[in-house]
Every structure is written in C-alpha cells, then in structure tokens.
Design a protein that fits this description.
single chain, alpha/beta, Spore Coat Polysaccharide Biosynthesis Protein SpsA, Chain A, 7-stranded mixed sheet
Length: 240
C-alpha cells in the first residue's frame, strides 16, 4: 500500500487506552500496526493498561515484546480514558498524537484522511459517519452534549468526543484539567481554539465495537461531564 500525501513525514504517537480489553486487544493492535506500516509513517504505540482486572496488562506486555514500536503504561488505579490521555501526552515522543480506542471504532484506511489534513491544521477533529449502534438514550445524550458545547463555548465543530489528532505541541501548551470526565475531549479542542491553533474536521467511517463493553453512557459519567462543562463555562464567564 502506498503512503498517502503528506504521511511519510509524520511522526505519530498512537495512544490506546485499554481497560479489560484482553479479548480483543491483540487483534486491534496487530490491525493498527499493519495499517500504519502500510502508510509509511513513523510511529509509536502507547498502550495504557488502566488497572485492568483481566489479563489486559500481560497481553499488552506480550505485544510490546513482539513490536518495538509499542510501549506499555500501567496505571495502579483506574483513571478512565481521560487519565490515560494525560499519561499518554506526558509520555509521547511523536510530533502528532491521536487516541484510538482498543476497539478501534473506525475504518483504519481512513487514517489517511487525518494525514492529508495535517498539512494545513493543528487539530483534526474526527466526525463519525453514523451512530447506528447507539440507543435512543445515548443519541439524546450525545446530541445534548454537542449542542451545549456549541452554545456555551461558541464552537462551530459538529462533534467533540470522537477520534481527534493533535500536534503534540498543542496539548503540551495547555493544562488538561477535566480528564476525570468525558469533557476533556471538548476541553482540549476549546482550549486549542482559544490558543489560536488551526482546527479542521475530518469525516471518518465509524465501526461499532466487536468486543468489550462501551461505558460512555453511564449516568455517573454523564453527570460528571455536565458538571465539568458548566464548571469550566462559569470559570470563563467570571474570569476565575
């Protein structure tokens, strides 16, 4: 497979947070590495074992032993995807940084869309093609989240919590404060805009998860995300 336009000069850190993903982690990692090798990018893979209670940690170590591009970070306590994101930003060596879930959640062939757009932007916000696997409740929560972010923070992007690729320097120019909830996805984009970085959207085909369990619609996480969103908005309004 030929490298896409602009991809050969990329040095990409891929972050893959994993909590109890032992059943599908190896297949996802192998598929991801095959794709990246085919695209001709320089890359590293950071797998964050988020204090899994299954064999995810040992599977990750086995994969790192097989693939020199892979490293493993082990969390002593479960910190969620946001905690994995912060750990990944701190440990990353690449020029670009992208979080790809352990279930992949995208057609890997479309990574080339991010690579092509990287020539003219600093943050590439993924726009997923469909939500066919969402329940009515999850769709309503997602819609409300997007519309609130757009209203409160004056953002024009159509989504804020799918796969986004950043120049690592963008993330290191800010403090990621709300990593304990899903609001950290939007927080990074809002702060990047405020710092004057260029933001572009990338249309991506979504692939529903085949293994593991989605946790994004848990009531506790929804409430924490709403709390953090309003807290940050009030801080901006009051200048505190």
């Amino acid at each position: 497979m030929c490298a896409s336009s602009g991809s050969s000069n990329l040095f990409l850190t891929v972050l893959m947070p994993a909590y109890n993903e032992a059943g599908g982690l190896a297949a996802s990692v192998e598929a991801l590495l095959r794709a990246l090798d085919g695209y001709g990018v320089t890359y590293e893979l950071l797998i964050v074992d988020d204090a899994s209670t299954d064999t995810t940690g040992s599977v990750a170590e086995e994969l790192a032993a097989l693939h020199p591009q892979a490293r493993v970070i082990h969390h002593a306590a479960n910190e969620g995807i946001g905690g994995g994101f912060v750990s990944g930003v701190a440990a990353a060596r690449g020029e670009w940084f992208i979080l790809i879930p352990a279930d992949l959640a995208m057609d890997l062939a479309e990574l080339t869309r991010y690579f092509a757009a990287a020539e003219s932007a600093d943050v590439l916000v993924g726009i997923r093609s469909n939500r066919s696997d969402y329940s009515g409740w999850r769709r309503a929560v997602s819609f409300a989240n997007i519309e609130l972010i757009r209203l409160l923070f004056g953002m024009r992007e159509r989504q804020f919590n799918y796969i986004t690729m950043y120049r690592l320097a963008v993330l290191r120019a800010m403090t990621i404060e709300y990593w304990r909830s899903a609001f950290f996805h939007a927080e990074t984009i809002i702060k990047a805009k405020a710092l004057g970085y260029r933001i572009a959207e990338v249309e991506v085909s979504y692939v529903p998860r085949g293994t593991g369990r989605a946790t994004g619609a848990r009531p506790a996480l929804i409430l924490a995300t709403a709390r953090d969103m309003l807290h940050y908005w009030l801080r901006l309004r009051t200048g505190r």
